[in-house]
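Our collaborator T.R. sent over the components below with a one-line note: 'Predict the complex.' Nothing else. No constraints on interfaces, no templates requested, no preferences about which chain binds where. So this is a plain run: every listed entity goes in together, and whatever single assembly comes back becomes the starting point for the next discussion.
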Amino acid sequence: MGRMVKWGKAWLARRGISGETFACYLILLPFMGLFFLFNILPVLSSIVLSFFDYDMVSAPIFTGLDNYVRMFTGDQVFLKVVGTTLRFAIVAGPASYLLSFFLAWMINEFSPRVRVFLTLIFYVPALVGNGYFIWQILFSGDSYAYLNNLLLSFGLITEPIQWFQDTAYNFTVIMIVQFWMSMGVSFLANIAGLQNVNTDLYEAGTIDGIRNRWQELWYITLPSMKSILLFSAVMQIQAVFSISSVIQTLAGYPSVNNSVDTLVSYISDVGITRYELGYASALSVFLFLMVLFVRYIIGGLLNLVGKSDH
Amino acid sequence: MARHRQKYQKMQYRRYTRSRAGNFFFFFILILGGLFMVLPLFYCVVTSLKPLDELLIFPPRFTVNRPTLENYRVLGALLSNLEVPLSRYVFNSLFITVASTFLSILASSMAAFVFSKSKIKGRKVLFGIVQAMLLYNAVTLAVPQYLIFCKMHIIDSYLAYILPAIPSSVGCFLMKQFIDSNIPDTLLEAARIDGAGIFRMYRSIIMPLIKPAWMTVLLFGFQAMWSAVPSGTVVSEELKTLPYVMSSVSAGGIARTGSAMAITVLLMIPPILVFIITQSNVLETMSSSGIKE
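Returned assembly:
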């Protein structure tokens, strides 16, 4: 053992690696090793597999760009689920992002104790994870269910609505449930960021002629928490593009006419149920590129914050 | 007294920038929003307290006339004739949650220390990858991960839950940002002069000083693992978790609604408690979470 350590030290010294550098690599290893195994390796294998036809039984066959061509030319469901995913992203994304900021901003006006209480209230739905099935009871399709019964008794509708099946309503209903759960990490980050804005800046602002809270928000608060806003945007983008289990629980998979199926649900269907791993991998690569693209657009937009027109 | 005055002076700016109409508007929005957030959970608690005859009233009511703990008491009997005793599910959930959270705190804090304070080659690239993975979707990782589990022969074991939960990119990211903004280089420099090595610095300086960051990883780890439902990677009944039991109870139809709600309420309590305990530390950590470009 002693000889091995000695030999190892000599080997490191020959390569010009100091003991300290070696120690650094050593304590980085547990995290990076597992990170490589369960995150990087799956991503890399997705990229490689996306050029193959593979069903887990027979050997993979190289098919070049066929999987990607199939996505855009031969797969009606794909085009539909991408449309739905983008629809969710465009409506729920900015709305829940702005909401998570504005709620945090309003909560920040209160004294610390009230603030903790309000934070808990708004964070609880995201905190408890799988509470969303409660909505199933409120929105059930028969005439006895809560909402239908209420609407029937007021005479607003004449027959019960199948909230999760009717394509006229299911998108909106799921959006409501999604909103309910969307005050997560980004909401907490916004609250924390707001508390850390230097209060001297506000005082200086009033002397410099800031007259209402909206001006204060635009010229002082937002610019001083730009980096937090980017972090919370990243978390919110990730969340909004991965909406799937909520929808699968509430509307089932596949939903009526694939009306509310998202890309993530479709990927697990193709990969896990149909064993078309090559095609599923190509779909995941496409999803990641799409998310990355959105993230850099938001990063660019946030750079405009706090700038005046004149 | 002096501190009071200082605080009062600091709030002076509000006199000029806060209109009464605006305050009223804020109050109104917060009450509406708060009700929207809490009512479904409130309904869940109320239903869990309803006796059977009130459960069967149509339409369901938002209130309970004669609250009872019967649904909670029945839960014990209901779950005693499962294939596997309830205590096993409780143990499974607790065990995977505690083990993976603890190991995750350890591994990600060590990595975050190196990312933040060392000068080794490749650390920026590696951290860049960790940061990019914040955007990657966990569901799409499932298929290739399954292949890796097969190769490692850890399908249908505790390791299938615990190992992939350890390298959390959010956890490592938050810890690194926290170390960046809270631990000055001079502190470590002084320790180095006193002859402390990397391990010593990690144990005696980093670990105690980043308590808020590990409380944060604790909250997120707990939250994720407590609601973990076994996917295809775990099939044995004796390795399944509490949320799985919950879904089997709620599949029992209308007569079991009360019990299903009761177990939901019970499962909601631990994460809420963990949040109440950790919240001030979590907020402290989040305030250094910004991404600078």
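Summary for T.R.: The beta strands of chain A are 52-53, 61-62.
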